[in-house]
Amino acid sequence: MEYQLIGDVMPAVEVRMQAGEKMYTQSGGMVWMSEGIKMETNTNGGVLKGFTRKFAGESMFMATYSATVNDATIAFASTVPGKILPIDLADSPMTCQKNAFLCAQPSVTLNTIFNKALGTGFFGGEGFILQELVGTGMAFLEVDGDIVVKELQPGEVIKIDTGNIVAFSKGMQYEIERIKGFKNIFLGGEGLFLTKLTGPGKVVLQTQNMGEFAGRIAKYMTTK
Question: What are the backbone dihedrals phi and psi of residue 127, each rounded to the nearest 5 degrees, phi first?
Fold first, then answer.
């Protein structure tokens, strides 16, 4: 399998597959493909796994695209302005935010996981629901805005607005921390909580928070 990233503002990843090779994505992720590719829609792991994704706000069904001829091409595009990040899971399993996954090879497993901390579930926003990527193949993540990568040393801490996290190395300590101070909470404009990650491990950040951006746009929309 070969791939190339296309575009700058609204990028896509175009994958060239040989006969028998496959890629899967959530429903609606494919934007174009050549002749010689067969599509199959399924729950990608069983009904229970599909319902788990549905409960997390993701697509219950996945679309798997199989090449029936050599050099067949297929492209998957981001839904918002930003970047597409290739990840080789042979290097390290990754945990990512639920909206970050774009597509992957079948040798990569996508699992939905829930943060066990009750406070995180009710107050941590996006941080409550995460997805885990494990396996040995390539996966592609959708990044809002630009990509920033931090390599944390053992014990090193970074605190992040939850909407700006894309992914981090599996096994990193992950917590939700409440912002302290009455004025900071109500006047600071940063929300009630931050995500705290402790190294060692890799952290991938995005410079755009689409939830916050959408909220700002909504202020200018009028209703009748």
Answer: -65, -15
